[in-house]
Amino acid sequence: MMVFILLACLGGVLVGLSRQLNGRLSISTTPLIASFWNHAVGFAVLTCLGLFVGGLLPAGAAEAPWYIYLGGPIGVIFVAAGSWAIARIGAVNAALLIIGGQMVTGVAFDYLSAVPTSFWANATGIVLIVGGMIVSRRRRKTGGSQ
Length: 146
Known about the structure:
2 domains
């Protein structure tokens, strides 16, 4: 179990590093160029890894529904938007915005797909996320900690 926890932590560090690099590259160039290089390097690394480990094209990939492949274009938009946001609002605020958006969208998807959930637990989670973002913004506007 400890190996998986360490891998998850390593993944989080690498995602944070990637966002910082994309944000910095976005400042030097444009968000679209930063997104291009993010995807070009990711494609090259994952292709080499797939060729080395095997399973680059899994069985049944051709029979998958078309909408399964929308993740790529959505990822391009997400990375470009993240590069743009980091350059304007900072890495911490961009991370808070992304995490908050993912949590609220996950709750919305649960309701749309009729997954049995607890309304009060979801409502409390959303209120805490939004409240934390408001407190963070208010604290920054007043000049730091009080």
